[in-house]
Amino acid sequence: MKDFLMQHGAFLFWAAVAVTSLIVEALTAELVSCWFAPSAIVAMILSGFVDIFWVQLLVFLVLSAILLAVARRYLKKRLAGKEKTDLNADSLIGKTGIVQDPINNITETGSVKISGLVWTARATDDREIPAGTVVTVREISGVKLICEPAPQEQTTNK
Length: 158
Fold this sequence. Notes:
Helix content is about 45%, strand content about 25%. The protein is α+β, with helices and mostly antiparallel strands. Strands 1-2-3-5-4 form a 5-stranded mixed beta barrel. Helix 1 (about 1-30) packs antiparallel against helix 2 and helix 2 (about 35-45) packs antiparallel against helix 3 (about 55-80). The mean pLDDT is about 85.
């Protein structure tokens, strides 16, 4: 066992560094430690040809620094340029729909149909909104749409 470790210790060390850096990146998702994995793999391959550990370490550090500086900056810019897309219910804020069942906050009743789906709804204030009224979604509270009657120009464009 001692001979095996003496012969393959650096290889195993760099393999452990690569796996550890990927695990740390998976836990943090900050685009920092993932750049150590390819550097560790290069150092791991180099360990089969060069027995001097400080040479392996130097290659690892230089390659890590280059990848961290160049690739991280590039990816951060690419990811920052992406617009935030509202997924799920948040995409309904600002949309208009038609009241299906009268909205009454006191009796906790009401529903609105938007894009073919019927949602439970409440009014932004305590007034009752009758069925057939065009409303605008102002916010979402839990699974309920908080609505108010749409301005007249929006109701005439429907």
